[in-house]
Specification:
With 358 residues, this protein is of the alpha/beta class. It has helices spanning 36-45, 57-60, 121-124, 127-141, 145-165, 172-212, 226-229, 233-247, 268-271, 274-296, 313-321, 335-339, and strands spanning 2-11, 14-19, 25-29, 68-75, 80-87, 91-95, 98-100, 112-115, 219-224, 258-263, 266-267, 301-304, 328-332, 345-350, 353-354. Bound molecules: adenosine-5'-triphosphate and magnesium ion (MG). Adenosine-5'-triphosphate is lined by residues 12-13, 30, 32-38, 59, 61-63, 333. Magnesium ion binds next to helix 1.
């Protein structure tokens, strides 16, 4: 997947202009609040996903402007594509002259992965973020998995409601048996899909992380699951029944699993330095792009917003000069970082304008 041209009009502070990236690493630099993240966001929207900043459509349109328009030219394995996205009351999308049913029509047509600073919470925060990452990654590859996750949450809510009511009506315990049968099947499917994804992801992340750390550190993952320890979710539900009735909630299962990220044998969340945590999150994103390549045959473009801060020169050099086989976009403020790029393109953004190359 290679973006060759992006035209914008009244997209946030990007008033009117055109950006021509190269096929390798593209650094977008400038001072704060000039439009760097806006440019990445513009590229990202062609993936058919929502803004990675969680923005509403209206917020994407330049202040006091009637609509925003983006036009992209990109090459995939099949052909050269022309895509257009207009944001007005709602989003409308056209691909190669054919009108799509909304921006989600781009899903699977242009693929991208994005690292926004908020993604660091994958390492720093509690297990929920990591479960969500695994589930979202599986969904991206297997859209049918979304229904599994939805059914799992629904059954879990029903079970927790039953656990609350069972203290008043013991006949509900029979219903609990029936519910547990189904919940166990769906829950095991969730665990299985997450673990399968993780098996594909791990070797990719290990390799990138080794490169990033100059071969000095090793990353690893451990999927922590009580269901597995007790021989399946069904057995766990049975073992926990008394405790669950007392606490009126389902105390163990895929909704409580965690993905431990380990650097040199120790938890990255607990012991990792800022740079290590950032490197781990970054390696996960690159790994995600490689799994997508394996599964879809297309390498997504990689969008990296503000990744360079906290990384030492060795790690910056690896990202800028040693990652091959994909198109990467990196925003940064620091001119020293820009100076480290040996190939690729450098683009300065000032006040929403792409400045001529110097
Ligand atoms: N709908 C909009 N219309 C006009 N300007 C907007 C709109 N939305 C955001 N902006 C402005 O765009 C400017 C650039 O934002 P952006 O997030 O791209 O900055 P940046 O270059 O990434 O800066 P930083 O280095 O601080 O991350 C901000 O000043 C912001 O207020
Ligand atoms: Mg920014």
């Amino acid at each position: 997947m290679t973006l060759s041209e992006l035209r914008f009009k009244d997209f946030r502070n990007l008033e009117e202009g055109v950006y021509y990236p190269g096929p390798g690493v593209n650094v977008i630099f400038g001072e704060n609040a000039q439009g760097k993240t806006n440019l990445l966001e513009a590229i990202w929207l062609f993936s058919g996903m929502k803004s990675f900043r969680g923005a509403k459509d209206q917020e994407l349109i330049g202040f006091e402007k009637p609509f925003a328009r983006l036009k992209a030219a990109y090459q995939n394995n099949v052909r050269e594509n022309k895509a257009q996205l207009t944001v007005a009351e709602k989003k409308t999308a056209v691909l190669n002259g054919v009108k799509l049913s909304g921006a989600t029509g781009f899903l699977g047509k242009f693929s991208a992965v994005v690292f926004a600073p908020s993604f660091l919470s994958i390492v720093k925060s509690g297990p929920e973020e990591r479960r969500r990452f695994l589930d979202a990654s599986v969904c991206q590859l297997k859209p049918a998995y979304a229904a599994v996750v939805t059914e799992f949450s629904r059954l879990l809510r029903q079970r927790n409601a039953l656990l609350k009511d069972a203290q008043f009506e013991s006949s509900l315990l029979d219903m609990l048996d029936v519910l547990d049968e189904r919940l166990a099947v769906v829950g095991d499917k969730v665990t299985e899909e997450r673990k399968k994804y993780l098996e594909n992801l791990t070797p990719k992340v290990e390799e990138i992380y080794a490169g990033l750390s100059g071969g000095r550190e090793e990353i690893g993952f451990c999927y922590l699951s009580k269901s597995r320890d007790s021989g399946g979710f069904k057995d766990l539900l049975r073992q926990n029944r008394r405790e669950d009735l007392l606490s009126k909630t389902t105390t163990g299962g895929p909704h409580r699993d965690d993905l431990e990220i380990v650097i040199n044998g120790r938890s990255a969340r607990v012991y990792g330095s800022q740079g290590q945590q950032r490197s781990a999150a970054l390696a996960l994103k690159f790994g995600e792009s490689e799994v997508l390549l394996d599964e879809t045959g297309e390498m997504p473009v990689v969008l990296l917003d503000d990744v360079m801060s906290e990384l030492d020169a060795v790690r910056q050099d690896f990202i800028l000069n040693h990652i091959e086989g994909r198109q990467v976009f990196i925003t940064c403020c620091d001119p020293d970082t820009v100076g480290r790029l040996s190939g690729g393109t450098k683009t300065e953004i000032k006040n929403g304008r792409i400045l001529p190359c110097t």
